[in-house]
Amino acid sequence: MMAEFELHKNDAGQFHFSLKSEGHTLLSSEQYTTKASALNGIESVRKNAVENKRYIMATAKSGKPYFNLTASNGQIIGTSVMHADEAACRMAQTKTAALAPSAGIIEES
Predict the structure, then answer these.
(1) Are 19 and 96 a contacting pair, CB within 8 Å?
(2) Beta strands in the chain (DSSP E)
(3) How far apart are CA 15 and CA 35, in angstroms?
(4) CB 69 within 8 A of CB 54
(5) CA–CA separation, 14 and 67 (whole Å)
(6) pLDDT tens across 31-85, in order?
(7) Structure pTM?
(8) How far is residue 21 CA from its own chain's centroid?
(9) Cα–Cα dist 32/38, whole Å
């Protein structure tokens, strides 16, 4: 199974990225003002994704589970999509941990 970070620039000139596997989004970032900052965010995801203690499970107001991936300083560096149930959320967390460290980067326009 392969994964890739898709790096996007929006109309306002800000950057964000998503970690995708098999066409499904596992994790998305916040908006960054520079491309360099977004690339640093990707490196932080690669580094921190392998540490279980960096994942914070949460439940949205809709009742659907999701997770946040945090850096060592506690800052959220990525948020998953909403999942149907806790098992699906944990599976996405496991995939993120396994795939993020070696995922390539695709720059989307």
Answers:
(1) yes
(2) 3-9, 15-21, 24-28, 55-59, 65-70, 76-79, 104-107
(3) 6
(4) yes
(5) 24
(6) 999 999 999 999 999 999 999 999 999 999 999 999 999 999 999 999 999 999 9
(7) 0.93
(8) 11
(9) 6
